[in-house]
C-alpha cells in the first residue's frame, strides 16, 4: 500500500506562518514564519533558548498551546495530533534522542516502519529498507543486536535518524544533530544530511553551530527570543555574522 499526498505541485513542503506557542503562561514563539521547499536543507539557527526546539515541537503538535498556520504538503496540520502528522510523512528527530533502550538496533528500526509514499505527480518518494539504512549507517550495521541503552550518544543519534527514515518521510525536522557528539560523528552527520538531500529528503535543521550549518544548508532562518530576525541564504548569514551581527553565538 502506498499513501498518495496532495500538494507539493509548487514544491512547497512546509509553510509556517504567524506561529505562536506557549508553555503554560509563558509565551515562547511570536509570529514565526518559515518555509521549506522540496529538495532543500534549511537551517533554523539561534542561541540557546531562542526557541528553535520549540518551533519544531510546535510544528509537530508537541507544545501545550499553539496558534497560527502550519501547512504540510498542502494540508493544514496546525491542530493535528503528533502521530497523525508523522503518518503524513513529516519525520521528527528530537534533541533528546528517544530510542527504546531495551530494544535492539533492528527492533528500534522496526518501530519506525511506515508504508512507501508518492509525490503528488505519482512518482515514488525516497524510501528506505533496513538493509539500505544499515549500509547508510555503518556504525549501526556493526551492532544490529545491541540494545539501544548500550550505545554511545552519537550512535543513538544515528539510530534515531535511521528509525525516522523507516517512516519514508518527505521532510525531516532534525533538532541539533551536532550537539554533544564527538567531532568524528559530527562529520558523519554532515555527510549523512548531504546524502539524504541527494536522495530527495528535505530537512529543517535546528543548529547553533554555523560551521556545521554552512556545510549542509541552502538557506537559514535565525530566531532571537522567539521571533525570526533573519531569513536568507547561508552566505548572506555568514556575511552578516562576519560584519558583527552576533545573532548565533557559536
Ligand atoms: N517544557 C518547557 N516548559 C517551559 N519553558 C520551556 C520548556 N521548554 C523550553 N522552554 C523555554 O522556552 C524557551 C525556548 O526554548 P527552546 O528549547 O525552544 O530553545 P532552543 O533555541 O531550542 O535552545 P536550546 O538549544 O537550548 O534547546 C526557553 O526560554 C526555554 O527555557
TrEMBL record:
The UniProt entry, under InterPro entries, shows: AAA+_ATPase, ABC_transporter-like_ATP-bd, ABC_transporter-like_CS, BCAA_Transport_ATP-bd_LivF, P-loop_NTPase
Gene Ontology MF: a single term: branched-chain amino acid transmembrane transporter activity
Would you indicate the residue range of the signal peptide?
none
Q: Note the Pfam families from the entry.
A: ABC_tran
The record, for SUPFAM superfamilies, names: P-loop containing nucleoside triphosphate hydrolases
Boundaries of every ABC transporter domain copy: 14-250
Similarity comment text for this entry: Belongs to the ABC transporter superfamily.
The name on file for this protein is ABC transporter ATP-binding protein
Per the UniProt record, the source organism is Comamonas koreensis
